[in-house]
Amino acid sequence: MRHAKKLLAGLTAAALMLTAAVPALAKSDFSDLDGHWAESYIEDLYDRGYISGYSDGTMKPDNSITACEALVFLSRFYSLTDDELAYVCADWGEISQEYVPTSLKWAYEEVAVCLAAGIISEDELDALDLSKEIPKETLCVFLVRALGLEREALELEGIELSFADAADISESATGHIAQLVSMGIITGDEQNRFTPKLGVTRAMAATLVSRGLDYLEDEDISLTLDGYSGLVRTEAIIAGVGSGYVQLRGSDGLVREFELSNGAAVTVNGKSSSLSSSLVGEQAEFSALDGEISSVAVTTDSDVQWVQGRVSRVSSASSGTYVMIDDVFTGETVKVNIVSSSELTLDGDEAEHADLSSGTFATARIDDDKLDTLDVVTLDGEIKGEISEIVYASTVQFKVKSGSTLYVFLLDISDLPTVKRGGATITIDRLAVGDEVEIAIDDAEVDTISSTATESGVTATLSAITVTSTGTFWVLEDDAGNEATYQLDSMASIYNGSKTISASDIKVGDTVSVSVYGNVITEVELVSAAQSSEKFSAEILSVDSGSKTITALYNGRLVYIDTSGATIISAATGKTVKLSSVEEGGSATFYGSFETSNSFEATSIIIES
């Protein structure tokens, strides 16, 4: 990419060489333009910023343009982002430099764009003298390709043209010229001649380009470069691999998930391979188009180790300088010795070890037990998006789609961030897929998850209850007979007076007063009998012997179970067991009563597995 950035620096020079740019002149100030046959076309390109005048106040419309200048004109049909241009230059820059003489090096980037767009081929570029005038028929061929009409032109190849000098037109250009004639972009002169071998003036080029731009506007066509529009290329550490997707952690500490396109090219050390969990922790180069990975190149080296994680300590003493990093992959603290050859950056800028501090996020490349590079970030900010998925386990995968990017936040079930809905603190399982949230990031770590929905109050009659695989939905009817459907939060607080009750106590026909965030009911008040005891089966996520609490996943929600008064029995042996012997990841049946919507006081527990 350094090469691409070097190429990028030539863009300003290209513009100056082509347009002889000077402080802007009004159109009427060009002394040689008034009354010229191409005045309107030149003024059109002047207004669009395609062309400007010379330092003497003239436009010189009858000066010839070179093949190089013509390609620069056509490259401007494509509006590229800086990233897209950098990718084009990375792919085509060396070829451009190979065939473009150094005297025209200001056009390296534009010629690379023309190669990427298919306006000119490598063989054609090799055969073309860029410093000489471009023949009119050659410019027509390039213009058709720039407009994306090559296929239509090839279907017309060999067609009989009506120009008086049609015999002078190269057969390979007849289809392209016929295509432009049919569009009204080119016509013959007063003697119905096309003059295909004649050089092209600034006025002629301006006319063709202006008419081509009008065609694109009339047809509402936005030109893009196939394979580059929306392209992202990056180097990152593989954080996870699944069926049809890969998770990447960048130097900013954030994990992003990408789909793997069908037929994605995967290489490991240059050989065709496939992605597997064995590559987690390895660095790789990725190409992604519209959020879908199209190629992956992994290079492994037994002497190279990648470490990512939070900096816990930075120290300098007579024995040496080192940084301690809590490795996100292994959970171990890695001591990284900083040597004189180590390259350190902080938020992208060159840094010294004294600039580093604990709590920041670091990516270290260690080669042969020596620190090669250390990139440290102090990422703070917010990410807004929609919840895509929540996967509960000892590490919760909390996925949020922000624009076209899918972020994956890996959260410790025993140390979850604060979750807010309005002014209330709630548990993470009270958020649902589709909720709009804002993630507060502090030093590359999730600090707070906040629902961005606003609260409203509704008092109505419950007219219908529907239970689907995605949740429970209530239809509420107001006094005017208007109905609205809401999803019942699986952790909604439900009350009869001051007592907590369950959703099953609420019947169709009851009048309820509910609090709604977005389209989700979070709190319900009604008159009904409280249910005092229950039993349920659930997956055990964590066991805390100190507080005598089990955290379980039940119907997609977290339940905190007080086991202090419970008898725990193994279903396999029928014998009583201690809480400390209960394993995470197993399942159990719990008997007792709900004290609140997510706290359960157990009287007995049967460990199933």
Could you walk me through the main structural features you see in this protein, from its secondary elements to its overall organization?
- It is elongated and about 105 Å long.
- It has a seven-stranded mixed sheet with strand order 9-8-7-12-13-10-11, with no helix packed on it.
- The longest helix has 18 residues, at 82-99.
- It is 19% helix and 39% strand.
- By secondary structure, it is an alpha+beta fold.
- Strand 15 (395-402) and strand 16 form a beta hairpin.
- The chain folds into six domains: 2-134 and 199-218, no CATH class; 231-298, Copper binding periplasmic protein CusF (OB fold (Dihydrolipoamide Acetyltransferase, E2P), Beta Barrel); 304-377, Beta Barrel (OB fold (Dihydrolipoamide Acetyltransferase, E2P)); 380-451, OB fold (Dihydrolipoamide Acetyltransferase, E2P) (Beta Barrel); 455-526, Nucleic acid-binding proteins (OB fold (Dihydrolipoamide Acetyltransferase, E2P), Beta Barrel); 534-607, Beta Barrel (OB fold (Dihydrolipoamide Acetyltransferase, E2P)), CATH 2.40.50.
Distance between the termini: 53 Å
Number of strands: 32
Strand content: 35-45%
Q: Describe the biggest sheet?
A: 7 strands, mixed
Number of structurally distinct domains: 6
Helices, by number, come to 11
Strand order, sheet with most strands: 9-8-7-12-13-10-11
Structural class: alpha+beta
pLDDT averaged residue by residue: 85
Overall geometry comes to: elongated
Low-confidence stretches: 1-28, 527-532
- Taking Cα atoms only, what radius of gyration do you get, to the nearest Å? 34 Å
Helix share, percent: 10-25%
